[in-house]
């Protein structure tokens, strides 16, 4: 898959956004890191898939509750209500991006070391249940 330069920058911004959000949570909900992570994540998504597709993704009727929670959580983080904002944002994130978890899980199972760990019997069953992966009939 070939990415344009704009999409490569978008992927980097999304990665840095996730990194800063993770560091912000680990460092006892540091407001600056959380706010920077939110801005980088949303701008990276916009560059990665384009402004029009981003608008349509967030404006879909079945995803409106997730969109409202996600952006309300971002607003709460910007208003210094970090803990409540992250919880509300996480609910919105799960509603928006929850459909991608089985795809991500299958990708991680293809990796050399991580895939072996994720394919262990008890871990596999727990992650399949958590991600909502369906079992094959065959």
Largest beta-sheet characterization: none
Kindly report how far apart the N and C termini lie: 30 Å
Q: What's the mean pLDDT score? A: 91
Structural class: mainly alpha
Number of H/I helices:
8
Low-confidence stretches: none
Number of strands: 0
Membrane topology: Multi-pass membrane protein
Family: Belongs to the GOT1 family.
Keywords: Golgi apparatus, Membrane, Transmembrane, Transmembrane helix
Subcellular location: Golgi apparatus membrane
Detailed description of the structure:
This protein has 138 residues and is an all-alpha fold. It has a domain of 94 residues. The model has no long low-confidence stretch (mean pLDDT 91). It is built from eight helices and no strands.
Topology (SSEs and partners):
Blueprint: H1 5-26, H2 31-49, H3 51-59, H4 64-78, H5 82-97, H6 101-109, H7 112-118, H8 121-131
Helix pairs in contact: 1-2, 2-3, 4-5
Keywords: Golgi apparatus, Membrane, Transmembrane, Transmembrane helix
Membrane topology: Multi-pass membrane protein
Pfam families: Got1
Give the structure's gist in a few sentences.
The chain has helices at residues 5-26, 31-49, 51-59, 64-78, 82-97, 101-109, 112-118, 121-131. By secondary structure, the chain is an all-alpha fold.
What descriptive keywords fit this protein?
138 residues; mainly alpha; 8 helices
